[in-house]
Amino acid sequence: MAIKPSAERRFPPPWTAEEYRGISYIVRDANNFPLAHVYFESEPGRRAAANLMAKDEARKIAAGIAKLPELLKATPR
Questions:
Q1: How many domains does the chain divide into?
Q2: Is residue 66 part of a domain?
Q3: In a domain, 11, yes or no
Q4: What is the pLDDT, as a whole number, of residue 5?
Q5: What is the 3-state secondary structure (H, E, C) of the chain?
Q6: Residue 49 is part of which domain span?
Q7: Which candidate among 16, 31, 54, 75 keeps its CA 20 to 30 Å from the CA of 48?
Q8: What is the mean pLDDT of residues 3-13?
Q9: Is residue 1 part of a domain?
Protein backbone atom coordinates (compact mmCIF):
# COMPACT_ATOMS: atom_id res chain seq x y z
CA MET A 1 0.00 0.00 0.00
CA ALA A 2 1.56 3.27 -1.10
CA ILE A 3 1.37 6.33 1.14
CA LYS A 4 0.00 9.40 -0.59
CA PRO A 5 2.29 12.44 -0.21
CA SER A 6 -0.66 14.54 0.92
CA ALA A 7 -1.79 11.97 3.48
CA GLU A 8 -1.68 13.20 7.06
CA ARG A 9 1.01 11.46 9.09
CA ARG A 10 -0.13 9.43 12.03
CA PHE A 11 2.90 10.34 14.16
CA PRO A 12 3.86 13.86 13.03
CA PRO A 13 7.43 15.08 13.30
CA PRO A 14 9.46 16.37 14.95
CA TRP A 15 10.10 13.49 17.30
CA THR A 16 11.97 14.15 20.54
CA ALA A 17 13.76 11.97 23.09
CA GLU A 18 13.66 12.87 26.79
CA GLU A 19 14.87 11.16 29.92
CA TYR A 20 12.08 9.82 32.11
CA ARG A 21 12.51 9.33 35.88
CA GLY A 22 16.10 8.14 35.56
CA ILE A 23 15.04 4.73 34.19
CA SER A 24 14.33 5.29 30.50
CA TYR A 25 14.16 7.61 27.55
CA ILE A 26 10.82 8.31 25.91
CA VAL A 27 10.54 9.18 22.23
CA ARG A 28 7.51 11.41 21.57
CA ASP A 29 5.94 12.82 18.42
CA ALA A 30 4.88 16.44 17.83
CA ASN A 31 1.58 15.76 19.63
CA ASN A 32 3.48 14.55 22.72
CA PHE A 33 2.33 10.97 22.04
CA PRO A 34 4.85 8.42 23.40
CA LEU A 35 6.22 6.28 20.56
CA ALA A 36 8.98 4.30 22.29
CA HIS A 37 10.47 3.68 25.72
CA VAL A 38 14.17 2.77 25.87
CA TYR A 39 15.10 1.48 29.33
CA PHE A 40 18.52 1.60 30.99
CA GLU A 41 20.20 0.81 34.30
CA SER A 42 23.04 2.87 35.74
CA GLU A 43 24.32 0.29 38.23
CA PRO A 44 26.53 -2.31 36.44
CA GLY A 45 25.53 -5.27 38.63
CA ARG A 46 21.82 -4.64 38.25
CA ARG A 47 22.26 -3.87 34.53
CA ALA A 48 23.79 -7.29 33.93
CA ALA A 49 21.14 -9.08 36.00
CA ALA A 50 18.27 -7.26 34.28
CA ASN A 51 19.96 -7.42 30.86
CA LEU A 52 19.49 -3.66 30.30
CA MET A 53 21.52 -1.08 28.40
CA ALA A 54 23.78 1.52 29.94
CA LYS A 55 22.34 5.04 30.07
CA ASP A 56 24.55 6.31 27.24
CA GLU A 57 23.58 3.37 25.00
CA ALA A 58 19.88 3.97 25.66
CA ARG A 59 20.28 7.69 24.92
CA LYS A 60 21.90 6.93 21.56
CA ILE A 61 19.15 4.47 20.62
CA ALA A 62 16.39 6.93 21.60
CA ALA A 63 18.10 9.74 19.67
CA GLY A 64 18.34 7.46 16.61
CA ILE A 65 14.64 6.65 16.79
CA ALA A 66 13.81 10.36 17.13
CA LYS A 67 15.74 11.07 13.89
CA LEU A 68 13.73 8.59 11.80
CA PRO A 69 11.26 11.12 10.30
CA GLU A 70 14.17 13.30 9.13
CA LEU A 71 15.97 10.32 7.64
CA LEU A 72 12.87 9.11 5.82
CA LYS A 73 12.21 12.59 4.43
CA ALA A 74 15.79 12.80 3.13
CA THR A 75 15.56 9.42 1.34
CA PRO A 76 14.91 9.80 -2.42
CA ARG A 77 11.80 7.98 -3.64
A1: 1
A2: yes
A3: no
A4: 52
A5: CCCCCCCCCCCCCCCEEEEECCCEEEEECCCCCEEEEEEECCCHHHHHHHCCECHHHHHHHHHHHHCHHHHHHHCCC
A6: 16-74
A7: 16
A8: 70
A9: no
Whole-angstrom distance, CA of residue 69 vs CA of residue 71: 5
pLDDT at 20: 97
CA 19, chain centre distance (Å) = 11
CA distance 27 to 10: 15
13 or 2, which is more confident? Answer: 13
Q: How many CB atoms lie within 10 A of CB 63?
A: 15
Sign of the CA dihedral running 36, 40, 46, 48 = positive
Average pLDDT of every residue of the chain:
88
pLDDT tens digits for 32-75? 999 999 999 988 888 888 888 999 999 999 999 999 999 988 76
